[in-house]
Amino acid sequence: MTPRSISEAFERRRAVGQAALIPYVTAGHPRPDGTADILGALAAAGADVVELGIPFSDPLADGPTIQRSSFEALRGGTTVHKVLDALRAFRADSDVPVVLFSYLNPLVRYGMEAFLADAVRSGAQGLLVTDLPVGSDPGLEEEIAHSRLDLIRLVAPTTDPERVERIAAASSGFLYYISRTGVTGARASLRDSLAEEVRALRRVTEVPVAVGFGISTPDQAAAVAAVADGVVVGSALVQTLEERGTDAGATFVQALRKGMDRG
Amino acid sequence: MTEETTLQGRFGRFGGRYVPETLMHALDELEAAYAAAQTDRGFTAELDELLADFVGRPSPLQKAKRLGEAVGHPSVYLKREDLNHTGAHKINNTLGQVLLARRMGKSRIIAETGAGQHGVATATACALFDLECVVYMGREDIERQALNVYRMELLGAEVRPVESGTRTLKDATNEAIRDWVTNVESTHYIIGSVVGPAPFPRMVRDFQTVIGREARAQILQAEGRLPAAVVACVGGGSNAMGIFHAFVPDSEVELIGVEAAGEGIATGHHSASLAAGDPGVLHGSLSYLLQDADGQVAPAHSVSAGLDYPGVGPEHAFLKDTGRASYTSVTDTEALDAFHRLARLEGIIPALESAHAVAYVLRDGGDFRARGPVVICLSGRGDKDVAHVARVEGRGRLI
Questions:
Q1: What is the per-residue pLDDT across B155-181, written as a single tens digit (0 to 9) for each?
Q2: 3-class SS of residue B287
Q3: Domains of chain A with bracketed CATH
Q4: Confidence band for A263, pLDDT divided at 50, 70 and 90
Q5: What is the pLDDT of residues A116-150, one digit of tens each?
Q6: Contact assessment for residue B15 and residue B285, using Cβ atoms and an 8 Å cutoff
Q7: Is the pLDDT of residue A192 over 90?
Q8: CB neighbours of B25 closer than 8 A, spacing ≥ 6?
Q9: Is the distance from CB of B198 to CB of B318 less than 8 angstroms?
Q10: Segment (H or E) for A154
């Protein structure tokens, strides 16, 4: 199917006063061949955009849950090619946009030019590279920016204000605000200052602001949805898929959606 | 040509700052604090005093007569970093970084360690300045280096075992970076080698250049000439960069880095990133990296925990590509043999890491006979390795 663009996915929610829900899954986890089905189930459960993680041997920005999912996916033989195959299978009958989420090395090894072309051909709409912050490699960043993929950038609570403006100027699709310092993983509470931090970001960017890291319950999703344009949920979903399977993962996403709409 | 390109902390195309966004502020802050410290006479005076009175510098450059006879070379020298307080070159860097952390107002220090030498050196500097210290160490290395674990604990550090991935130095580094991302506002991360995101590779090298500055003056004093070759082992490569740097402008001096060939490069069980790796990104910088066809980092192997690392400092990648330094390797067996031979020939039990540099000279040192003196960086002493070597060689568990 012809996929929707990321900005269109946000706009559909914004038009009715809602925030977008963005679940993250690690490709090849919990089963090497189950990823296309999981993506389909998440889309049917109300995901507006899906983040699909390419597993890496050294996920140094990730907490225990996503680390474990990455190691298991690699043990199951997941490669970049297989991730793109799963995306292509999903794309055959869904128009929900997909952001590929990766560390830099597997992409450089694949060849950035070839990767960008193959990712577009497989039906990806965006790319987020955890360890490619703004200004770290102008050549590679330009190559991605000139592709048809949106380049999703991260902003952290520690990011200096001048740098936030640079990041905003170099972003498309959405801006991903990391709700706290630290690695990925479920947390009991969110920062009190989150609403003010998101407002500050909105002042410098036109693109939607999504918030992630540590969001694990419908109540937390609702609280974030009240202040941001999008809510990213990763580790809690990865753990649900691992322990209770695809249907339970879809039910969890539905519960997050309900929480956000109620809030 | 042999000088680094300062743009974005790169050495040619290598290096850089490939890190999660959360760390960018801390790296900017560190770079600024380091730049300020470099021009502050108070900082350099305090560090020099510590290096003299606490570490015992300058370390001697010793003529190794019987080692020289064994290889048929009249002037082989050992730069005795093993005589430093804590038993290795690592203390040169940790004292510098702890002074810097104090200037930045950081109250908590973290570090990764492989063989445990950097962990001990960090714990030592933290004890001296009453700073909280957490050291990440792979489970496998904790088994191999039990003595150093206890030393760190005696010095007041907390040693956190790392159970993920290969359970060695690579994963200890991942875990230290995760800690830093989480506690970045209160914590300084003391990287132990010339690896990681800018400014670490240059800063760690700078703190280690005292080795080469001393060695260059000492060999001129002893021989009235520069050496034909300077030889050092390379894991991440801090002792090698430390001794090489002062000789880089002396184009007649051959700089030779010795990597760990483990069970042999052809077996795939080795740590020779420069010999057998390809450019890639790990732990924040672009350098040579052991990796598979899909860009996943390949497990390294060496009998020496300190060399058991799939990456290498970006400045070594640059020196290799420009041809200013050359890199070779020796196997576990050759290193173990050198460990014994240096003990018998010179009365010095070397660290297994440093034994790699000695092994190279035992093998090829005679080639330099007609060309001039050879200087080996004896980066550390082998007390920490005695129990491990006994076990590897079938003597059972000593402790």
A1: 999 999 999 888 989 999 999 999 999
A2: strand
A3: 6-262 (3.20.20.70)
A4: low
A5: 999 999 999 999 999 999 999 999 999 999 999 99
A6: yes
A7: no
A8: A156, A158, A159, A160, A163, B184
A9: no
A10: strand A153-155
Instruction: Tell me if A47 sits within 8 A of A253, measured CB to CB.
Output: yes
> What are the residues of chain A with a beta carbon less than 8 Å away from any beta carbon of chain B?
56-63, 67, 71, 74, 79-80, 103-110, 130-137, 153-160, 163, 167, 178, 181-183
Report residue A145 as tokens.
């920016």
Question: Angle at the Cα of B298 (from B294 to B302), degrees rounded to 5?
Answer: 165
Name the one residue in this structure whose structure tokens are 């000279």. Answer: B361
For residue B14, the chain A residue with the least C-alpha distance is: A137
The first and second tokens of residue B248, run together, are 């880089």
* B381, β-bridge pairs: B350
Match 């184009």 to its residue by tokens.
B251
Question: For residue B135, which of B162, B113, B166 has the smallest C-alpha distance?
Answer: B113
Quote the pLDDT of residue B143.
84
pLDDT for res B278 = 98
User: For strand B10-11 and strand B76-80, is the pairing parallel, antiparallel, or unpaired?
Assistant: unpaired
Report the interhelical angle of B90-103 vs B41-50 (nearest 10°).
140
Residue bearing tokens 């003196």: B373
Lowest-confidence pick of A91-95, A184-188, B133-137:
A184-188
Task: Reply yes or no on whether the pLDDT at B4 is more than 70.
Answer: no
DSSP state letter for B72: T
Phi, psi of B147 (to 5 degrees): -60, -45
Nearest residue to B303 via CA among B209, B233, B253, B250: B233
Q: Which two tokens stand for residue B228?
A: 């034909």
Q: Do A181 and B182 touch (CB under 8 A)?
A: yes
Give the number of other CB atoms < 10 A from CB of residue A230: 27
B113 closest CA partner among B88, B92, B137? B137
Cis? peptide before B199, omega within 30° of 0: yes
| Spatial separation of the C-alpha atoms in residues B201 and B30, rounded to whole Å | 13
- B261: phi then psi, degrees, rounded to nearest 5: -85, 0
Question: What mean pLDDT is predicted for residues A189-197?
Answer: 85
State the Rg of chain A over Cα: 17
Q: Is-catalytic flag, B379? A: yes
> What is the enclosing helix (H) or strand (E) of A24?
strand A20-26
Centroid of chain to Cα B390: 24
**Tokens 């021009």, located at residue:** B39
Smallest CA–CA separation between A45 and chain B, in Å? 31
Using the 8-state DSSP alphabet, how is residue B284 labeled?
T
For chain B, which residues lie within 8 Å of any Cβ of chain A, measuring from their own Cβ? 8, 16-26, 28, 164-165, 170-171, 174, 177-178, 181-185, 278-284, 289, 291, 293-297
Instruction: Specify the 3-state DSSP secondary structure of B327.
Output: strand
Q: Could you give the residue numbers annotated as active site of A? A: 51, 62
